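Dear Dr. L.,

I hope this message finds you well. Following up on our conversation about the binding site, I have prepared a predicted three-dimensional model of the protein together with 3'-deoxy-guanosine-5'-triphosphate. For your records, I am including the exact sequence and ligand specification that went into the calculation, followed by the structure tokens. Please feel free to forward this to your student if that is useful.
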Amino acid sequence: MQPKLKELIFASFSFEEHSPLYIKVLMLNALIFIAVVINTIFFLINVFFSHNYSLAAINFFILSAMLYSLYLLRKKNDHFLAGYIGTAILFIAFITIVITQHGEKYTFIWTYFFAPFAMITLNAKRGLLVGILFLTIIFTLACTGIGTWQNGQWDIASYSRFTLSHFVMLYVMYAIFNGYEQANKKIERMRQNEKSQLRLFEKLSITDPLTGLYNRRFLKEIFPKQLYSARRNKKYFAFFLLDIDFFKTYNDTHGHQQGDEVLIKVSQVLKEVCSDDEDYTFRIGGDEFAGIILTNEKQEIDAKIEQLHAKIEALQIENKASPITPFMTVSIGVHVLDHTEYDYKEIFRVTDTALYKAKGEGRNRIVFL
Ligand code: GH3
Ligand code: MG
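The resulting structure of the complex is given below.
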């Protein structure tokens, strides 16, 4: 079968995922397409064989409007308008058929298609309301014909059968579509739940639980991306390692709990100073932190590192065990990229050497390499 024809008949729209909207569009497409085909056939029959020109005119009216709906659906992706127009056309057309044909030659049978069509296109509740309105008009019209339509064969028994079967049809359709919609809502809620759970897990997997900074895993992930971004946007890329001085003795003197408080306070300074969109800060080990700074101004790197160093000392966290200062201090090793190297391990190694040097030279200082 030709791909185009196959697409038209089987309504193989391409959607990213199998959503309820996808199914609605598929059904709408199929219904409109069937309406087009049937009305074309009946239009030809009514013109050339039955010579029923009033019915042919109705067929032609439905045919044109349905083609327009199909165009809206397929070319403009407007399933709302296509659905509303389709429903409105069937509403008017079926009532016109009843008025003009009086149920002759099974023409009543088409009225049964209104409820499912309206429920697919408008949703179950609105479809039900429009369906009730439609049936009220149809039943009123059909009631006026009792004893006279179809050469008197349209009697009270036929009328009762007609109305009762319509009620059953409406009820069954509503039960099916309403159930389907409720199930979809539930599935959608579950999917949203899953998504937010997944987002939470993703966040947890890259976050240090004590400080809320990113962890070492995320450093490895974001490092090459930021490096690439710096190279592409011709920005300076700085990587630093920051380690608390004499933290082990601090823990021994003040207790582990208070040690944790220090880690949190240090991390707050890191967040505060490295707060630009392209700055990232990490806790990569016990008392070891790291950061990436991307900037157009080289001085900004110096300024931020100086600030980090000074602000942490300015916290005035008493460190009785420190042989060098009365307050908690940090040593920082910094490496600003010269655009020749782009290997994480190499950059890390150079920066670590800088930190080692800062420690070796007496701590509480910054070393650029
Ligand atoms: P240096 O100046 O050479 O860095 O000396 P230091 O005592 O800080 O030595 P080092 O950085 O090797 O010590 C890290 C200490 O950090 C060891 C451990 O007691 C402490 N530590 C590691 N993780 C935690 C933590 O989660 N909480 C607390 N309170 N302490 C931690
Ligand atoms: Mg330390």
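In brief: The longest strand covers residues 236-244.

With kind regards,
A. P.
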